[in-house]
Design a protein that fits this description.
The protein is α/β, with parallel strands linked by helices and about 375 residues long. The chain has helices at about 50-60, 65-90, 130-135, 145-150, 160-170, 205-215, 235-240, 245-250, 260, 265-270, 275-300, 315-325, 345-355, 365-370; strands spanning about 5-15, 20-30, 35-45, 100-115, 120-125, 140-145, 175-180, 185-190, 195-205, 305-310, 330-335, 380. α2 (about 65-90) runs parallel beside α3 (about 130-135). The chain starts with a strand and ends with a strand.
Length: about 375
């Protein structure tokens, strides 16, 4: 590997399961700090039949060991295709890339310990076989990041605060880095650079996307530019009910996922209600209000700047609501700070993969509740 200068690729598939985000970064390790440059990112589509196989596995009772085994290998091949396509797009050769960090596709995440066979157990399962990616690309692959944090007593999420602390930490102001993917998560970065706080705030785009897909009979998968939600009005009765969800009052460190805010949420709260612009607008307000309440309850102060990334950064309805809730804060999107809002998570796993092969800890115990800093991920060699 080159001395103090590295190229890494990150692969990430989120809760919408519509594509694999692949991002290449260049990392310069300097005496005082780490410089990270975004090289290029692509979104590689997941075939529709594979997408529905994954959705079927999300649902309780439909899990089949045969299907899971097959899907793990097939998805690894698709992740490998995403990496190869990124190499082709950037003009990079495989031997120029030091490592791929692959998050994989989360199938199930258990953040709160459950009684199981005489012990209390947490767990998180991601698939997309890393050995297949390594063989397909000829590049070492680090994967299965969450298990190491859970083994150290953490919840295994959120992991992106590791990147946030390097990108936005020690800037002389109180900053909240708010990602709005399927789930919302915040990293509180105080001006002192110490006492980082990070946790999942609650729903991001997940409920919105499910409602949009149902409302449009599958024609659309998300509310592009907030166009549908902007035609509706907030249903205050529903919003009040949703804000009583138990996760929102749970103390950090905490993480959540599709288990709390996926189809079960819709069947519990909206089983007799047809999707409409009003419901989609209410879901968008739910995302913004749950973020606001999370800050009020769990952060030590009001951030001077809120940097929004993820798909929610493209939704002006959510951004407008956030600005209304945080009148004394500057709400901006990550591109104003030189960060591609669509590829921050992929960048995070690229960096975490690099830290793994360098033997450097890559978790944030303050975010996950882990007992100590550990090196996350498992290495698969080509």
């Amino acid at each position: 590997m080159r001395d103090r200068s590295f190229i890494a690729i990150g692969l990430m598939s989120g809760t919408s399961v519509d594509s694999i985000d692949a991002a290449a970064i260049e990392v310069e390790l300097q005496e005082e700090n780490t410089a990270i440059r975004f090289v290029k990112g692509i979104s590689h589509p997941i075939p529709e039949d594979i997408r529905w196989e994954i959705f079927d596995l999300f649902e309780d009772g439909s899990q089949s060991l045969h299907r899971l085994t097959m899907l793990n290998m097939r998805l690894g091949s698709i992740f490998g295709d995403a990496a190869l396509r990124l190499l082709d797009t950037t003009g990079l050769d495989a031997d120029e890339v030091d490592v791929i960090g692959s998050h994989g596709q989360t199938i199930h995440h258990i953040a709160i310990p459950e009684e199981y066979c005489g012990d209390k157990v947490r767990g998180s399962l991601q698939i997309g076989e890393a050995s297949v990616i390594a063989q397909k690309t000829g590049i070492p692959v680090v994967s299965d990041f969450r298990a190491g944090d859970i083994a150290a007593g953490g919840t295994g999420a959120p992991l992106v605060p590791f990147l946030d602390s390097i990108l936005f930490g020690k800037k002389g102001k109180d900053i909240a880095a708010q990602n709005i993917g399927g789930i919302g998560n915040v990293t509180w970065l105080p001006r002192s650079g110490e006492n980082i706080i990070a946790f999942d705030t609650g729903p991001g785009n997940m409920i919105i996307d499910l409602l949009v897909e149902k409302y449009t009979s599958g024609r659309l998968r998300f509310d592009k530019n907030g166009e549908i939600g902007s035609q509706g009005n907030v249903r205050q009765d529903l919003l009040d009910k949703w804000m009583k969800h138990h996760f929102l009052s749970q103390l950090p460190p905490k993480s959540t996922g599709r288990e709390e805010f996926g189809t079960l949420f819709l069947s519990t709260y909206l089983h007799e209600t047809e999707p409409s612009p009003d419901l989609i607008r209410t879901a968008e307000e739910f995302t913004a209000l749950s973020i606001s309440e999370a800050y009020r309850k769990f952060l030590p102060g009001t951030p001077e700047e809120i940097i929004v990334t993820g798909g929610g950064a493209h939704n002006p309805v959510i951004l407008s609501s956030l600005s209304n809730y945080f009148k004394s804060s500057r709400v901006i999107t990550g591109d104003k700070r030189g960060i591609n809002v669509d590829f921050k998570e992929a960048m995070a796993f690229a960096l975490m993969g690099l830290w793994n092969i360098l033997g450097k800890p890559n978790n944030v115990p303050e975010a996950t509740g882990a007992s100590r800093k550990v090196i996350l991920g498992k290495l698969s060699r080509p």
